[in-house]
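User: I'm curious whether this sequence folds into something compact or stays loose and floppy. Could you predict its structure so I can see for myself?
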Amino acid sequence: MRRSLTTARIAIVGMGPRGLTVLERLVANLRAQKFGSVQIHIFDPNLPGTGCHDPDQAGHLLVNTVAGQITQFSDATVVNAGPPLDGPSFHEWLIAEDLRKGTGNPIHPDEYYSRAAFGRYLHWCYHYLVALAPANTHITLVREEVSSLHRVDEAWVLRTASGAVRTDFVVLTTGHTKAAPRGAARTSTGTLAIDDPYPIREQLAGVSPGMTVGIEGIGLTSMDVIAELTVGRGGRFHVDASGRRTYTASGREPHLAVYSRSGLPLTARARNQKGVSTQYRARFLKLDVVRAMRAQCKLDFRKDIVPLLWADMQYAYYEAYVRRKRDSLLSVLLLSQLVAAESAAQRDALVRQYVPEADRFEWQSLYDPVPARALVSGPVFDGWLRQHIEGDLADAASGNVDSPIKAACDVVRDLRDNLRAAIDFAGLTEESHRWLLGEFVPFMNRIAVGPPASRLAELLALVDAGVVDIGFGPGAHCVKSAEGRWKVVSAQWPERKAPVDVHVKARVSMHSPADDASALMRGLLSGGHARLFTNGGFHPGGIEIDRNFNVVSGSGAATTNLWALGIPTEGPKFYTFVVPRTGVNSTALVDAGRVVLDLLGKTGYRPAHAAAEEDDASVPTTEYASAFASMYATL
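Assistant: Here's the prediction. I'll summarize afterward.
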């Protein structure tokens, strides 16, 4: 419903990276349009902009995306979101910060920097946006949690510990939240069980030298836990003349027994050769193809999407392969025919014709890389696992363009929007949606969303130093022993077990909003302002939203002045927790722009999209540079 408001009152609940995208789109559109008075209330108990990226956390906790590919600002590639707004990428900000501090450290766009530095960048972005807000816009920061949200006539009343604020529009961008109960608890056997290791330093403070810590998962969270309990305890890594890493223990480390369902760590992120915004272009899993399929019926991800994704991964693999072979004739014969082939069988026949068996791209070996021969015994597995990780590190060093396997795996990341087109808003059958989250997402994370290569090299050094044990094999788990103590046990070799004093679930919780610890989310559900998203009888997570990102009430009606973005919608939307990337029409910025355009269009002012194509719609470069410099003088 369109209104005519003397003053538009807007609330953003949560000011982490996703809340920042909403603020960025508001500021950009408000600068470019003719609006009356606007009041923006921002609610977040944390340092504004930072979300879970605390600027004071330890420097050994890293962002797993290279600096050049991270931004909080829109550019010309971001469509249907209003005018772009000039602002520095994370890499550009790091350069400016380094110049300001005068350290002279080289800052590289393809390096991985600390989450503390990223938190400082996000906090800076918040102040930069506030500084650029036009004169008709008043921004108020409330450093408190919203405890409840109630409808009064057509407005909303948001309550905090200190009072209440009435607004016309609310955008929920609450990000990662805790389930209740969460954290550390002492079990009846004396084992310290930590269900959520964040914040890392506080949660792991009770871990003492000499203890054995069982860590469930060998992914990004596990790497944080390992770093905190090694480097964070005073240990140091060294690189010798051959490039091999070694570890010198401080004596304050516990022993770490690390295990996972697959028995493998996530693979290393490859050296970036794609610059800031280059992505693989789909030959098979094209957006128009996915949308046409989706228009006919709900999709079966395994039958309808995986074959197309695999074909693109196969193409990227052989594109890198023929480049490595420097065989232009093979490039013409193989690549052109792969695209023209009408079936997977024809593509496989082409591969058999032109590529030796040892060089071929095999789905099964990627999906289930542990061969039966590696499971003959524990020592045999140890040797195989080391070779597997070292081989992965060699591939990562070759790069995400030159390494055939890394080029193939990077396709999954580059085509994530194409996958979203199939998955979002219950695009899959219920059974297929279950399979996606239970099987495909862990596989995708393992091959395409791993840690920086340095983390895996460090992991091998910790194994050599006797600090970490990762040799439990596939299917390992933690059980209560006969004597009452918990222990990590191998499903492959009964003699491989480790009684633990502490057990850490090193996985980011993607709990249901029904289990959320926040009074706000519980109140939204119990008050009928929101309902859980379901696909048939399956609740994959999140609250239900419509395609305009309006929250759907308990009665099934969309609430046209209440929107949600990011983690609260992880269910109807897919993979919402990635930060915006420069130059790729970032989904996070597009979604935020759509919300803002919808919101501003409901104020009764000039429609926000009307000036989106004006030549002077973006912030002038001179003004951007001036604001950039002045912000550094004050932060």
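Summary: The chain has 18 helices and 20 strands. The longest helix spans residues 301-325.
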